[in-house]
Amino acid sequence: CSSDLVEKKTGRPVAGKMVYATTLGRQTLLNVEQTDQEGKAVFLLPRITGEANLLFSVAEDLQEQTRIEVMDEAKPQQPVDFPCLSLSEGQRKDIEERIFTVRMSHRLGESPVAELVPAEEDTTDFYGKADRSYLLDDYTRFPNMQEILSEFVPEVRVRKASEAQPVIQMLNMPTKAFFTEPGLILLDGLPVFSSRTLLNLDPLLLRSIDVVSRRFFSGAYSFNGILQYKSYKKDLAGYSLPGNTVIQYFKGLQRMSVPRFADNTSLSSRLPYLRNVLWHSVLSPGAGQKTAQVDFFTSDASGQYQIEVRFINNRGEEEIRDRKST
Q: Per-residue pLDDT tens for 209-221?
């Protein structure tokens, strides 16, 4: 994904400034990029499964003078030429039948397909396992945020450089000394640049605190430690977003579905399976075996089907061994 940073008054691009992109309301996936001469920042986020909201923000000193522009998916885009996807009018009937089948399956009740959930899906935050995690319900609930940090979070300290904007410093565990410059402060994944705003939050709305007490590198950039507050409802605990912050809907990778047929006895009690593509599987013969048996169910939609048996040879090339119509 990408975003443009421009001046509010003139509309000119703003170059050489940091833009933050993070997920909202789920695991924290953060990416930081610097705008180029055209004010554009391109982000490469880890794999996102399902639907998510991406939040784009800038440092506090840029919030009043700039605005962030993110490409709207609803705007007409230039057509993309896919040589491998050539649709013709003769395929209209098949495509309409597939769309109709999916809609009917959703309306009739339980879908005759089961989701394929990835066996190993990374649900950790972008910094991995925090050096220290504090579940606030395990401690005495103090009336303000500063007391919480000073009483039972030794990796963090607050220095009052000014009453309006205290400095939150984090411990650099390898050197056993505190960073002199502020680190990255997050609230449910959202970067918070005003320490005073953070210290004014209601502690009763927060569930936990994660601390990364070392220098953390993200691509070409680094942070003097990370301090993340997580609320119970993942709703930013009443924190108001800056005026130029942009929230963009993002559709990530979608989970696949396969027919859920346990055995032949279950076929009489299920809804009709009307897709016009045969369910197929991948099968590898055992060591020393030259043949393998493949069992599959056909759709309940009557019609002519073509069965293809494909395999991968010793050179890693795919070949079609057999093709039959039924």
A: 999 999 999 878 8
